[in-house]
Specification:
Layout: H1 3-12, H2 16-27, H3 36-52, E1 57-60, E2 68-73, E3 83-88, H4 97-100, E4 104-106, E5 109-111, H5 115-135, E6 141-146, H6 157-164, E7 169-172, E8 175-176, E9 182-186, E10 188-197, E11 201-202, H7 213-225, E12 235-243, E13 249-250, E14 253-262, H8 265-280, E15 288-297, H9 304-319, E16 326-329, H10 335-340, E17 345-347, E18 350-354, E19 362-364, H11 368-384
Parallel strand pairs: 3-6, 3-7, 7-17, 8-18, 9-16
Antiparallel strand pairs: 1-2, 2-6, 4-5, 5-19, 10-14, 10-15, 11-13, 12-14, 18-19
Length: about 375
């Protein structure tokens, strides 16, 4: 390890209190995916921290969602390909959630909306960038702070893919698994809305004239769920439904939202073909249906380069006394986009936490610095490879 790398690690070892202070500031800002002011406020705090350490930050304007931020740390490798440290600023929680349960620490765990998923990862990335800016980075670094991951990155996906193309590697700081492991594979996901149209009629006076969109949706819902194949890892879930006009009217309209999860691209194609056939066919005569894809994640499929990246990270962690393994996750993440453009990718390298998307979400405080060290040592190892 070079002297600058050792200096970066030594500085990180002293930063737990500062990390927690920044984490508290970020967690105590409501930043649901559709709350552009809130997501941008989190970005402003991160940009302020980075600017305070002399790191330039570029804002990529995003209409309708929070802007994307890119931080740049020059590396001694000159024109060498950068390592990208990635994370999202949005959470799944509604505005006002922070007022009910602000940031707190109890028995070695931190709590609050998005504390693990993934504001702790954002803090870690920011501090690793600062450590290498102070000591000298062995390769160029890009910190990418996005804004809409929880809803499938509809606006930031092109930014993510463009940043990853040609990069040396991507380290995505989603929370480490409760086991302490990282994620080497993830499912892909397609999020859809189905609208069914029928014909209204009085449910008592002229029932036979009606065509119930709700009844048709019920038939389709059963058919959608029948696509699920647990052995293949394919699941279809109708998670939200709505419809009807009044209790005494045959429903002229009904909608549902559908979640498809799959392991490989061929699995996606097979499931989508079956979904399309169900949409096209009608059990209730004279009803029609229209399917819209609202958002989509690509699967994280580990290739040889990503496996080598994981093995580098695992060696570093083992040397620190915290062995890690790779896990497969059913949840989706932006790491699928970076892997899909051919960039070696490792996910869930952030501080360890659990129970994401729930009021019980927690972060293991003691993992903040060790995970930052593991990221920094991995970057140093990539520079030597």
């Amino acid at each position: 390890m070079t002297a600058p790398d050792a200096d970066a690690l030594g500085w990180l070892d002293t930063q737990e209190d500062a990390m927690l202070a920044l984490l508290e500031r970020l967690v105590n800002i409501d930043s649901g995916s559709y709350d552009k002011p809130g997501v941008d406020a989190v970005g402003a705090r991160i940009a302020e921290f980075l600017a305070g350490h002399g790191i330039p930050v570029t804002t990529v304007p995003v209409e309708g969602y929070g802007d994307a931020l890119k931080a740049h740390v020059a590396g001694s490798g000159g024109g060498n390909r950068p390592v990208v440290l990635m994370g999202h600023r949005d959470t799944v929680f509604p505005k006002g959630e922070v007022a009910h349960r602000p940031f707190r620490i109890a028995d070695g765990r931190a709590y609050g909306p998005g504390v693990a998923d993934m504001k702790a990862g954002l803090v870690m990335n920011a501090f690793v960038l600062a450590a290498f800016h102070r000591a000298g980075a062995p390769v160029p670094l890009v910190g990418l702070f996005t804004s809409d991951e929880e809803i499938g990155s509809p606006a930031c996906r092109p930014i993510i893919e463009g940043t990853a193309r040609g990069a040396r590697a991507v380290l995505n700081s989603e929370p480490g698994r409760p086991t302490g492991n990282v994620v080497t594979g993830r499912k892909g996901g397609v999020f859809m809305v189905l609208e069914v149209r029928g014909k209204a009629a009085h449910s008592g006076g002229n029932y036979a004239d009606g065509r119930s969109a709700i009844l048709e949706l019920a038939h389709k819902t059963v058919a959608f769920h029948a696509i699920t194949d647990l052995e293949r890892g394919t699941t279809v879930n109708v998670g939200l439904i709505a419809g009807g006009q009044s209790v005494n009217t045959v429903a002229p309209r009904a909608t549902c939202e559908i979640d498809l999860r799959y392991v490989t691209p061929p699995d996606r194609a097979a499931a989508m073909d079956r979904i399309a056939a169900i949409v096209a066919e009608s059990t209730v005569p004279d009803t029609t249906a229209h399917l819209t894809i609202k958002g989509e994640f690509l699967p994280l499929v580990q290739d040889e380069a990503s496996r080598a990246l994981f093995e580098t990270y695992a060696r570093v962690s083992a040397r620190q006394g915290t062995p890690v393994a790779g896990e497969f996750a059913g949840g989706c993440a932006d790491s699928g986009f970076t892997a899909s453009v051919g960039c070696p990718t490792l996910c869930a390298v952030g501080p360890v936490g659990g129970k994401a998307h729930s009021p019980e979400e927690y972060l293991e405080v003691a993992t903040l610095v060790p995970r930052a060290r593991a990221m920094a040592e991995t970057i140093a190892a990539l520079a030597q490879a």
